[in-house]
Amino acid sequence: MKQPWFQPAIGKAIAATDSTFRIAYDAGLQAAPDTYMPVEQWKDSKDQTRESRKDIRELQQALQASKRFSVLAIFQALDAAGKDGAVREVFKGVNPGGLKVTSFKSPSEQEVEHDFLWRTSKALPRDGEIGIFNRSYYEEVLVVRVHPGYLDSQYAGYPPPVETLWPARYQAIREHELHLAQSNTLVLKFWLNVSPQRQARRFLERLDDPEKRWKFSTGDLREARLRDQYDQAVLQMFNETSRPWAPWFCIPADERWYARWKIAETIKQAMSALPLPYPEGESLSDDQVSEFRAELENRRDS
């Protein structure tokens, strides 16, 4: 099958991500990935994250100045996998003027009355901007797939047959992300893969620590009981939507700093491969430069 066209620079950037956690594009995954712990030495991963973060800050400055591309980083995970911490640590210190973080909770009544891509489309990054989706339209093939009763409100009580609904949604997502890649948006998608045991440990920390109790929800525990169903939904999501123009990276998330390091390294590698030239400054003659320098030095020293 002929490869769909998308911006070559985007393809080069994605190919530059040297990650063992990138999900293949051949839809050949037979089971949901079960790698939850680091696969290499990770004790210095906090320092590694800091180093990658410095590079991301510099790259974001060039991205914002050139205004040729945008970056969309999508974070998906089960509860207590560490999405919020990963977003906070990976992008710490990045110029907030060029960063747009959007968290998607349960859809509002207005959002339900639109197609499932509507609310996220409004939050897409502009040229020169990094956009972060903390959850995204992928909730519509994860949570809604596990809880098909949500479809009633989306389709006024008359949802289409599931045998056509899910393939149509996957196709819509693939085409949406292909359109983004054709429009100079680098799409990188991260699944933070937490084990049932580590998830339970983190829930217990929230339950037992008065300062973390606000994070604990009985709803989270109900969802954790449906782990097998979520694993099947994740498997299908990977096979249907990991593509050369918008790959999935399934990051082991039982050790938080390791996950943050791998995410930061992947983003840094991809952005480093984008052509991000700084725009030309105002054209000035040598005489003008000398004149302006003299004036400014005089002001500085007065």
Sheet with the most strands? 5 strands, parallel
**What's the number of domains?**
1
Beta-strand percentage range = 5-15%
In spatial order, strands of the major sheet run 2-3-1-4-5
Strands, total number: 5
SS-derived structural category: alpha/beta
Q: CATH H-level name... which superfamily? A: P-loop containing nucleotide triphosphate hydrolases
Please identify the top-level CATH class. Alpha Beta
Instruction: State the helix count.
Output: 13
Mean pLDDT: 95
H/E element string? HHEHEHHEHHHEHHHEHH
Shape: globular
Q: What is the radius of gyration?
A: 22 Å
Distance between the termini: 70 Å
Brief sketch in words of this structure:
Helix content is 47%, strand content 11%. The protein is α/β, with parallel strands linked by helices.
What does this protein structure show overall?
The chain has helices spanning 8-15, 45-66, 83-90, 109-112, 118-121, 143-146, 151-154, 162-182, 196-208, 218-224, 227-241, 256-272, 286-301, and strands spanning 70-77, 99-103, 130-134, 185-193, 248-252. The relative contact order is 0.22. The mean pLDDT is 95. By secondary structure, it is of the alpha/beta class. It has a five-stranded parallel β-sheet with strand order 2-3-1-4-5, sandwiched between helices. The N and C termini lie far apart (70 Å). The protein has a single domain, classed as P-loop containing nucleotide triphosphate hydrolases (Rossmann fold, 3-Layer(aba) Sandwich). The chain is globular, with a radius of gyration of 22 Å.
Keywords:
alpha/beta, globular, Rossmann fold
